[in-house]
Specification:
- The protein has about 210 residues and is an alpha+beta fold.
- The chain has a single domain, classed as Electron Transport, Fmn-binding Protein, Chain A (Pnp Oxidase, Chain A).
- The protein is about 30% helix and about 35% strand.
- Strands 1, 2, 3, 4, 5, 6, 7, 8 and 9 form a 9-stranded antiparallel sheet that branches.
- A hairpin with a 2-residue loop joins strand 8 and strand 9.
- The chain is globular.
- It starts with a helix and ends with a strand.
Length: about 210
């Protein structure tokens, strides 16, 4: 089994990522790559790994969905009482990773995380399908539950009481990661991958190439 794992290998192609071809603004460069992923209809093109670290320095990571981005940052939504929520409360710094294997590309983004403005969380919550809104309002995310039936019963009781019209609960909403570092990664032959980093220093983005 160990030999089989060691032999697993995908040889990347010849698409280049050069300093002369990239945008000087990392948000614009992200948009170029993200739009290409959308245009190719890649499954879950907005899926990203969010890594956080708790107040006692224990890391954790999970995959969730990007729901908005602009030059203010990258937004996602969750239960504030989840593990990620408690991590962010105790240590408001995190990292995102987008990986599109079909394009042989990866983007790493690091920065500080803050809660979104309540009105933006309200707007997104009310735009969700009623089933998703119900799940968000009912699920005690990251808490232990007895079984699946327990969760289903909670949902049914909530539906009986509230129907499909209810406000966003206070414990659920959005976060924004405000970047101070981007890294754009393009797979190349023989693992000589291209890595271009944008680092925010004195409110200016410094660009440099990193060794693979």
């Amino acid at each position: 089994m160990k030999k089989d794992i060691k032999k697993l290998r995908h040889e990347y192609g010849e698409i280049e990522l050069n300093e002369t071809d990239i945008n000087s603004n990392p948000f614009a460069q992200f948009q170029i790559w993200f739009k290409q992923a959308i245009k190719m209809k890649l499954p879950d093109a907005n899926a990203m790994t969010l890594a956080t670290v708790s107040a006692d320095n224990k890391p954790s990571a999970r995959i969730l969905l990007l729901k908005e981005y602009n030059e203010k940052g990258f937004c996602f939504f969750t239960n504030y009482n989840s593990r990620k929520g408690f991590d962010i409360e105790g240590n408001p710094y995190g990292a995102l990773v987008f990986f599109w294997p079909e394009l042989e590309r990866q983007i790493r983004i690091e920065g500080k995380i803050e809660k979104l403005e309540p009105e933006l969380s309200d707007e997104y919550f009310l735009d969700r399908p009623v089933g998703s809104r119900t799940a968000a309002a009912v699920s005690p995310q990251s808490d232990e539950i007895e079984n699946r039936d327990t969760l289903s019963l909670m949902v049914e009781k909530f539906k009986e009481k509230n129907g499909g019209e209810f406000a966003r609960p206070d414990f659920w909403g959005g976060y924004r990661l405000i970047p101070d570092l981007f890294e754009f990664w393009q797979g190349r032959e023989s693992r000589l991958n291209d890595r271009i980093e944008y680092n925010l220093k004195n409110k200016q983005w410094e660009i440099r190439r990193l060794a693979p």
